[in-house]
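In this section we walk through a basic example: taking a raw amino acid sequence and producing a predicted 3D structure, encoded as discrete structure tokens. The instruction is simple. Fold the sequence below.
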Amino acid sequence: MRALISRSGTKALVGCAAAVGLALTVAPASAAPDDPSNPCLTLLTVAAPAKADVEDAYVCVYAFWKDHKSSWSATSGYAFHTAIQDGAELFTTKSDPVGALAALKAAFNAMLVAGNSTDLQMLLGDVSLLVGDLYTDETWAGLVKARDAARLVADNAGAKQAEIDAALKALQDAKNALMLKSILDPRQSRFTRVKAAQLTVTLARGKKMTIPAFVYDEINKASKVSYRSSKPKVASVTAKGKITGKKVGKATVTVRAPNGMKVTIKVQVVDKKPAKVAKPKVTVKGVKGTMKVGGVAYANVTFKPKNAVGVKVTFTSKNKSVVSVDKAGRLLAKKKGTATIIFKAGKGSKRIKVTVK
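The resulting token sequence is shown next.
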């Protein structure tokens, strides 16, 4: 039996069953080792097994394992294969059908169905985008503890589904319990605008681009935001806004403030960047030629063609002491004078001269 199992696996066992006239019974594809509908259970519980009973059990169990081995964890699969070989040794060299069947039953009962950690992996991805500074120390510490425990489970190839489900629930509960500092900090409850440098991005697969974004309060102070991709397998995004094109398709990156305000960035990933990219035509809205000291303007830059590949929007002030402009396009008039603001989109650009009175 040892040579038979190790040499040809299921096909050889099936041939053996036919040769000795055994009825080959294989469990249904959906059955787990402990599923009552699994016919191998009956074959493994014979009180006083004869040689034919053991052969029949081996045929069923080994065929079941071969047909379902992709569902077992690596650890339980190896343990099963070792135990079935040990049982075959008892069967062939010691003529011990009782011991052989017991070894086979123990191996079968020890099978672990590999848990599905897809939901846990996705939640871990969402949690990785959260910004700890935005939440109270106590609730963030709770999330970190649940996150670290969930990572251990997600990285364990032999984790049972019950363990995965428990880790998923603990992490989701910790995430739901997060408390924004805005509840304690009145300034954060007065956020007035979320601003991203651009709202459309087209990337070649494998390329990266960082899109700066901030949330501003009523005194025009900028604070951090969080980023989240609707389809991380198409376009992933880091906590600092670095977008990576993963595969061809479309995704939406949501930029969110601690108080819930948000803007969305439409991302398209193409197979590759064309050899020649047309010079974009740049349009700027929200910025006028005059400002008052202390005044604020938010530049909304668009370009055509809007699906031009690899076009990044940037902002530059030629006189920062008069008008400053941040990476997301927020202009602040600081003192009287004039300043030229350059709005670039790839190789295209537009200049606006601003006079501060």
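Looking at the output, two observations stand out. The two ends are 95 Å apart (CA to CA). The CA atoms of residues 119 and 203 lie 27 Å apart. In the next section we compare this with other chains.
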